[in-house]
Specification:
Blueprint lengths: L4 H6 L6 E6 L4 E6 L7 H8 L5 E6 L4 H6 L6 H11 L5 E6 L8 H18 L6 E5 L15 H4 L7 H6 L13 E10 L3 E8 L4 E3 L3 E5 L3 E10 L2 E3 L1 E3 L3 E7 L11 E3 L7 E11 L6 E2 L3 E6 L2 E14 L6 E4 L3 E2 L4 E13 L11 E6 L2 E11 L4
Parallel strand pairs: 3-4, 4-5
Antiparallel strand pairs: 1-2, 6-7, 6-14, 7-13, 8-12, 9-10, 9-14, 10-11, 10-13, 15-21, 15-23, 16-20, 17-18, 17-22, 18-19, 18-21, 22-23
Helix pairs in contact: 4-5
Length: 377
């Protein structure tokens, strides 16, 4: 999945890569999100499109422990929290590099126990987690059943491909008006001068139709559509597509924007009320804090204006009015001011446009949802 020279030389994924393959049951779009700490913002943009997730864990001694974090939160933990916050409920944990530990059942069980405790704390249900031991380098338990006797002696579950096939089918909302968050503006000879890609969240889109491009408010015509790198005339909710637009200036189409039906424009706002959960952090969250807010594919500088109330995590009810600060694992209702307007919906209206991530100093400090739009263009 790592195609660029930089990625191969450094041995890390830097950009979100997309691939396609078929199982007996599904046509799978594989969005390879980033694991390295330096590229978590890109990981957020890619993983927001997911219906289900495969969390790849390095089973090797020391590597797994580093991912869990000794002081603070490691990348395995951070990605687990992100994935759950995106609304992904079904998770496959691919416990990789089993060949390096001699396909040890004891080491696999240790990883399963330690990570399982944390996943449950994130809100995953045991019945929605599938654990698959494998070795990618040895091609063991990937697309066919395990063959190594050391693994067969204690594991008789699905290979990774079968585990993907066993996932429940995702819900597709085709009855509502079009909402398509723009993941990226791309260069394409086949799609034309203005080409973008993204996932259709609701409704549908067809060639020749008019769409409203937000936040600019310009009308454009859909020139061409490609799904799975093949031309098509129609795409529906759930489809990852690339498409060309005409009748609009290239500078008016931006990553983080949203395409919608001309009669149903998405709201554009610069002040929000959020319900957030503070993650495992060492800093204090105070009024006036400057941070970066991520919502679908948009990324914008923001500041904390008010802490309206703390929330009891068991009941969800406000337990204290106007606290001075927030600390690790507290839930709260807050008001934030954005440096520029973004396309957003309240979580109760459209989940895909209502999830937020707050990042500061290279770390995700809180996750949450939009409860209210405080101003609207």
């Amino acid at each position: 999945m790592d195609e660029s020279t930089d990625e191969r030389e450094r041995g890390i994924t830097m950009t979100v890569a997309v691939a396609y393959f078929d199982t007996e049951k599904y046509r799978v779009v594989l969005v390879d999100s980033l694991g390295h700490k330096d590229f978590v913002p890109n990981m957020i943009s890619g993983a927001t499109q997911a219906d289900a997730a495969v969390l790849v864990v390095d089973v090797y001694r020391g590597s797994f422990e580093a991912g869990m974090g000794v002081n603070g939160i490691g990348q395995t933990k951070e990605h687990s929290q992100h994935i759950r916050s995106f609304g992904v409920e079904n998770l496959i944990v691919a416990v990789n590099k089993m060949d390096l530990v001699g396909y040890s059942k004891e080491r696999f069980s240790f990883v399963q126990l330690q990570l399982g405790i944390f996943l449950r704390s994130c809100g995953y249900k045991d019945c929605s987690i599938t654990w698959v031991p494998l070795s990618a380098m040895a091609n063991e338990n990937l697309v066919t059943a395990a063959s190594d006797s050391r693994l067969l002696s204690w594991y008789n579950g699905n290979c990774l491909l079968k585990a993907i096939d066993s996932l429940p089918p995702p819900h597709r909302d085709v009855s509502r008006p079009l909402h398509l968050p723009i993941c990226d503006v791309i260069a394409s000879h086949t799609l034309g001068q203005v080409a973008v890609c993204g996932k259709v969240e609701t409704g549908g889109i067809r060639t020749g139709s008019k769409v409203l491009v937000m936040p600019s408010g310009d009308l454009a015509t859909v020139r061409t559509i490609e799904r799975d790198s093949s031309s098509c005339n129609l795409a529906r909710a759930g489809d990852n597509i690339a498409f060309g637009l005409q009748g609009i200036e290239p500078g008016h189409v931006v990553s983080g924007g949203v395409l919608c039906h001309p009669d149903f424009p998405v709201p554009v706002v610069s002040s929000l009320e959020l319900k957030i959960l503070v993650l495992e952090i060492t800093m204090l969250i105070l009024v006036g804090l400057q941070f970066e807010l991520h919502i679908h594919h948009a990324r914008v500088s923001a500041s904390l204006v008010k802490i309206l109330s703390l929330l009891d995590q068991k009941t969800g009810k406000a337990s204290k009015k106007r606290p001075r600060l927030l600390t690790t694992r507290q839930a709260a209702i807050v008001e934030v001011k954005l440096d520029k307007e973004v396309c957003v919906e309240e979580f109760s209206t459209l989940k895909a446009l209502g999830r937020v991530f707050l990042r500061s100093q290279g770390n995700t400090i809180a996750v949450g949802i939009v409860t209210r739009k405080l101003d609207q263009a």
